[in-house]
Specification:
606 residues; alpha/beta; Helicase, Ruva Protein, domain 3; Rossmann fold; 4 domains; 7-stranded mixed beta sheet; 5-stranded parallel beta sheet; 24 helices
């Protein structure tokens, strides 16, 4: 529409992964260098992660386009496949002819092809994009494929590219054999302010050598604040800004044009950052009015009320990297319903409004809360109907296995006071962990899968979803463990207003040992420390350890030996692997140990 007006040969900010438009920031250059190094060294497994829209797919295609003739590549960009489908897709990509459908025969054909290539001194790589969508069965199949080797080297190099949750998936205990084989990991970060400006100029120069267009410093600043350096969102903002300027017959993108464009994209009359600031002001005003009213009712000094308020800071547990995450349930904020917007460009931008907590905010979150001495208002409510008591064996005999994972997850989320709405297409997911994880994440809840026993679950003291195998059933069902009291165990069944009461011995008859544990990352400690994280997360961890009594730890961004030893000590106390790494299970333990975060409990004493 505006190409001729600005003298472009094509749109410079199209949302397609065109390698010709790849801007190599310092971080992108390092990622590409890591890929080339891994290829040269023959490393078996490589993991590349990056946030949504940071240019992973474009980078992958640029890497593949620049492979030398002695390298053959299979590129899988839709990894929602079963193990056998994956092998077929790999063989198809490599041009391997096959007649059989048996997995073993398919692998034999692949192995013969790889041996033939190796004999001719050729390399073969498998690159899987969006790898966070791989099921555990497929990941296990990939591990087995990595066993195809000679005495000297691997026959197939595997590169996994995906969103940050790929790292969390690979950190799972049951995938440790695969994780140990990953010899190179790298995280692709967003652009900084200077790189954002260079990125915009670069794409304009590719689209036209003499384009009649200019972005002012103010416009670049607005776009960077809005996009946070994520290339895909930069493209959206720039494309819409060009359209706005075209409508106004302007060749200069000013700050006001960029600001108006961003307001339109957000659909709320304000950019993400400004909108959040408005919400914060509204919340503070509402809180102040509540304090004044409370002071008047309870005849307490206003200053004392304000002091109490800031000693109990609001919980900001929405993950800073989550996509389209709604506001915490405790603060009801009216947001535009982006789930009904068909334009993917608009919905993709709603995530940029989130801001990161500062070190001062984190320190305030970690303050020890003192009990409030305010009198409580007692409201008389009608007594609920008493719950029915069910027997475990009887319930399992009539269990609807197909709907049990939804029912169990819904029950667990209600215990976290976080209701969910499951998208219809999630029901088709075969991977149960993916079903739980993808359904819960938009509500700020993570799901950690582990194999354990009831003793550890009681120490963690959190509700959990147990994988149960009813008698004579080859498919698992799911129940939510809601309460324990000594040897007694309860499973809540809210939809039937019932509770299953049983004992540990009976649970162990049906339970596979697999548990899905819902949890919140209250302080946004990202990744696995120290291998995949950022400096802010290390500082946050150290502040938390200080609150837990480890005062000899220096407050800097270095994951030193004292920090590692403190983590090992805490892990030993809970009876988990004391490796000094801070993954999901260790984070859960740290938050529980702090004691001031709002979490549901398994024990009767809340």
């Amino acid at each position: 529409m505006y190409e001729k007006f600005f003298n472009f040969k094509e749109k410079p900010f199209k949302l397609v992964p065109n390698p010709a438009y790849l801007y190599l920031s310092k971080n992108h250059e390092e990622t590409l260098a890591h890929l080339n190094y891994a290829l040269a060294e023959g490393d078996g497994f490589v993991e590349i992660t990056g946030e949504v829209g940071t240019g992973k797919t474009t980078l992958c295609r640029a890497f593949l386009e620049n492979l030398d003739p002695n390298t053959t590549a299979a590129y899988i960009f839709n990894p929602r496949l079963g193990p056998r489908q994956l092998i077929r897709a790999i063989n198809d990509e490599l041009g391997i002819k096959y007649d059989a459908e048996d997995t073993k025969d398919l692998i034999d054909k692949l192995n013969a092809f790889l041996i033939h290539k190796k004999a001719r001194r050729k390399k073969v790589i498998l690159l899987i994009d969006e790898a966070q969508n791989l099921s555990r069965k497929v990941l296990e199949q990939l591990r087995l494929l990595s066993n195809l080797e000679t005495n000297q080297e691997k026959l197939l190099q595997i590169i996994l590219v995906g969103q940050p949750e790929l790292g969390e998936i690979l950190d799972a205990h049951e995938l440790r054999q695969l994780s140990q084989r990953i010899t190179l990991r790298y995280h692709l970060s967003p652009l900084d302010h200077k790189e954002t400006a260079a990125y915009i100029r670069y794409r304009i120069n590719i689209a036209a050598q003499n384009a009649e267009i200019k972005f002012t410093r103010s416009a670049l600043r607005q776009i960077y604040k809005y996009s946070r350096g994520i290339p895909r969102v930069i493209n959206i903002a720039c494309d819409r800004s060009l359209l706005t300027a075209f409508g106004r017959n302007r060749h200069i993108i000013t700050g006001s044009i960029a600001r108006d464009t961003i307001k339109e994209l957000m659909g709320s009359g304000a950019t993400g950052i400004f909108a959040l600031a408005g919400w914060a002001k509204a919340f503070i005003i509402l809180a102040a009015l509540s304090l004044i009213a409370a002071a008047a009712i309870f005849h307490r000094p206003l200053t004392q009320g304000i002091t109490e308020f800031f000693r109990h800071p609001p919980n900001t547990d929405v993950e800073s990297a989550s996509i389209g995450a709604p506001a915490p349930a405790e603060i009801e904020i009216s947001e535009p319903d982006n789930s009904r917007i068909s334009d993917p460009q608009v919905s993709a931008t709603t995530t940029i409004a989130e801001t990161e907590a500062s070190s001062a905010d984190i320190a305030e979150d970690l303050e020890q809360s003192s009990p409030s001495d305010q009198p409580e208002l007692v409201v008389s409510e009608p007594a609920p109907d008493p719950k029915k008591t069910l027997k475990l064996a009887d319930y399992l005999a009539a269990m609807d296995i197909r709907t049990s994972r939804y029912t169990a997850l819904k029950t667990a989320m209600e215990l976290w006071q976080t209701p969910i709405e499951i998208k219809p297409y999630f029901y088709s997911l075969d991977d149960d962990h993916a079903f739980f994880r993808l359904t819960a994440k938009p509500r700020g809840i993570f799901i950690h899968r582990l194999e354990t026993n009831l003793d550890l679950l009681k120490r963690l003291d959190l509700p959990a979803i147990l994988e149960i195998y009813p008698t004579n059933s080859e498919e698992p069902g799911y129940l939510t463990l809601s309460h324990t009291d000594g040897d007694k165990v309860n499973f809540d069944i809210p939809k039937e207003n019932a509770v299953i009461e049983t004992i540990e011995e009976e649970v162990n008859i049906y339970w596979s040992g697999v548990v899905y544990l819902p949890w919140k990352d209250f302080l946004s400690i990202s990744g696995t420390l120290p291998s995949r994280t950022n400096k802010d997360s290390i500082i946050t961890l150290k502040l938390l350890l200080h609150e837990l009594g480890y005062r000899n730890i220096e407050l800097n961004d270095n994951y030193d030996i004292r920090t590692r030893n403190a983590i090992k000590e805490i892990q030993t106390q809970y009876g988990i692997l004391a490796d000094g790494f801070v993954g999901p299970l260790t984070k859960i333990i740290l938050y529980k140990s702090k004691g001031s975060f709002e979490m549901p409990r398994l024990s009767k004493e809340q």
